[in-house]
Structures are given as C-alpha cells and as structure tokens.
Amino acid sequence: MIKYEKKLRCHMKRVILIKYGELSTKKGNRNFFINTLYQNIKNKLKSFDVSIFKDRSRMYIEFHDSELEEIKKRLDCVFGIHMYHIAYIVDTNIDSIKNLLIELVHDLSFKTFKVETKRSDKSFPIHSQEMNHLLGGVVLKNKIGVSVDVHNPELFIKLEIREDHSYIYFNAYRGAGGYPIGTQPKGMLMLSGGIDSPVAGYLAMKRGIPIDCVYFEAIPHTSLDARNKVIELSKKLAKYTSEVHLHIVNFTRVQEEIYKNCHPSYCITIMRRMMYRIMEKLANKYHGFAIVNGESVGQVASQTLTSMRVINEVTSMPVLRPVACFDKLEIIDLAKKIDTYDISILPYEDCCTVFVPKHPVINPSLDQAKKEEEKFNFLPMIDYAVDNVDTIVVCETEKEFSDLL
Ligand code: ATP
Ligand code: MG
User: Fold this and answer.
1) For 139-156, how does the pLDDT look when each residue is reduced to its tens digit (9 = 90+)?
2) Which residue's alpha carbon is nearest to atom 6 within ligand 1?
3) 270: Cβ–Cβ under 8 A, 6 or more apart, which residues?
4) CA-199 nearest atom, ligand 1
5) Peptide bond connecting 220 to the previous residue in cis, omega within 30 degrees of 0
6) Among residues 245, 187, 236, 211, which one has the least CA distance to residue 337?
7) Do residues 151 and 191 touch, judged by C-beta distance below 8 A?
8) pLDDT digits (tens, 9 = 90+) for 196-215
9) Residue of 189, 237, 352 with the most ligand 1 atoms within 8 Å of its CB, for mutation
C-alpha cells in the first residue's frame, strides 16, 4: 500500500503521476534507479510546496494548482521520466470511480471517447475489459451527444486501478526520457563555444552521466566574451541537473609552444593530444570516469577516424562522442531544442579556431605525431595547466558567475 494515500483528501484532488518507462527493465538496479530519480525530482522541485511519494512502479507528486505549470517545466528537464499524467485521484471502489467520472466528463467538451482501464490491483473484482464497458456506459448515459470510437477517439479516458486509490486522467505528457543523472559516474565534457559539444553534454546526461565541463582557453588570443559564452552554455546544461562545475584550463602556453615547435600540418593533431592528456588528468583529479566531447566523424581534419585514432592514443580512458554519427543538421536541431544554438553561433573565437593552420593533416601518422611532440618538453606545461584550473560553479538561474572556488 502506498503510505501517503491515507492522508489524501480524494474529492477532485489531482496528482502528477510519473511512469518510469525504461527504468522498469533494470531488475536488480531498480531501487537504485528509482531512488536516484526521486532525489533528482526532489532537488528540482525544492522551491515548490510539493510532496513526493514513490513505489515500485509509479511516483506521485501532490502539488498546488497555481504552481502546476512551473512544476511541469521543471519536470520536463528531469531525465528518467518517460511519461507523466495529471491525474484525478479517487477511492478504489466502483461507485466513487463512477461518480468522479460523471463529474469530470460533465465539464469536458468532446464528441467521441474511449475508456482504457489498467487494473494493477488484481484483487479489484471487475476486470479491465468489463470496466471499460461499464464506464463507457456511464459516460454515454450522463453526457448527451457523445459516442464511443475505439480507433480514433477525441478523448481518451484512462483509469488506473491500484490498491486503495485509483487514478483517472485524460492527458499524457512526454518526459525527458533517458536515465536519471547520477546512475552513472561522472563524465568530463570538453565544452567549446561551438554547436556540437553542448549537445554532446546533453546526450551524455540523458544516459544518466553527471558532467563537469572543461573549457580550454588561450587568453589573450581568445577573449573573455568567448569564456562568457561557455558559461552561458553551461547554464543551459545546468537546467538538467542542479549545478555544473566548469573548469577553465589556461591553455595559452601549451598552444604557443605547439605552434612554435611543431610542423604546421600537425599542430591540430598535437593540440588535441595535449587536450586529451589534460582531460585524463582532470578526470583523475575530479573523479571522472570518461571524457565526453562533440567530435563528429568526418566533420574536420582532426575528426577523421585516422585522426581520432592518433589523438585517442594518449589516453586509456573511455571517450564518449555522443554526436559522432550525427549529421550537422541533426546536431543543430538538438541544439535548438535545448536552447544552446543561439549562444553557440555568437561569433567569438575559441582556442581551436584562433590557431587553425592552412593545411591540417587529414590522415596523421602516430609515429610522426610522436616525433613532433619530442620537439618540446610538454609534460610540465600539462601539469601546470591541470594544477591551475579555475573552477566556476554554474547554476541554471544564476545571473552572475562570481562564484570562483
Ligand atoms: P563544437 O564541436 O562544439 O561545435 P567546434 O566545432 O569549435 O565546437 P571542434 O573543432 O569540432 O569544435 O572540436 C571538437 C570537440 O572538441 C568539441 O565538440 C569539443 O568537445 C572539443 N573542443 C574543441 N575546442 C575546445 C575548447 N576550447 N575547450 C573545450 N573543448 C573543446
Ligand atoms: Mg565541431
């Protein structure tokens, strides 16, 4: 029995009924997934006067009507919710169900309808099909001018019969999907000011991976505007969690040394190998289990499979490339959906664009890359960059970013 049900006043009371969807398949891990989702929802709704309850197949949120729209907006950013309904709650007995349904359909305008019953409480004496007929009859008798249409009804009347209480609803809202953030260990997202990397971060979070963002900057070659752009992008990603840590790497020295010492065609390859080395060390420092980035196969010279292999060689850490096989237009669609696109297309240059050579090698050789790296002593520079990151805590709602750790 659900603990909270005793406390509820049932007449015309609504709750948000959350379905776990894909979570239900996680047999042994189920409780862990549900508890993580519960904590995430609680966190997201902490500024609202709500009560949240969970059982093995559903979560229920009691709310105040005036806050519903705002709550829905927050829930739409919680991964692990696949579907939710705003449901009327009623005692599980046939008369109460009938009476509430009569009241509810009285206020609704529709011509055709269909009743769908789910009988989760198998001790309830009337089977689902019988219930559909029975309630269909009740609606036909009490609402003039309506008829049943089982194929394409204007109104779906859904009833879920559970122990003690049942739920009637007419709507279905699609949740953000995916797995609750925190069901995987942390990933370190390489966040540039471009279009691809925020989308990669969003997709990684959707798989349950909390992220720290890492931005490589090369001041004075790059501007503070470029940094602010990345902060704004981090805020958009923070919408899906409570806050995001953004680590800013001072990459100036490493880049200058590369361009001073290495053959121009190999500069990008070497630069990216240096980035990966720094990423691995930062992952170790901040307990990350993977590097995440916005690389997309074939997009630029450093993202051919040959390049990726040579660049990837410096780390044994998993590198997730969520948009690896997406077309640019598909990535742009997602960027628009998560509201990062307009920020990403602002014109400020970042460290990759400032130093682009005319003819970067498309099919680099690993031997040559290693030879280029022998031309300067990069290890102390990498350690220096790792030891001197600036970390900013970015919240979705934060207007300023003065919160330097
Ligand atoms: P994006 O790929 O995000 O649109 P971009 O096209 O400028 O930006 P690429 O040159 O395609 O970036 O680099 C591939 C990936 O490497 C980026 O998606 C991002 O994950 C990472 N990256 C590039 N530049 C930086 C940077 N300055 N700081 C952090 N990560 C970076
Ligand atoms: Mg790119």
Assistant:
1) 999 999 999 999 999 999
2) 194
3) 258, 262, 369, 372, 373
4) 3
5) yes
6) 236
7) no
8) 999 999 999 999 999 999 99
9) 352
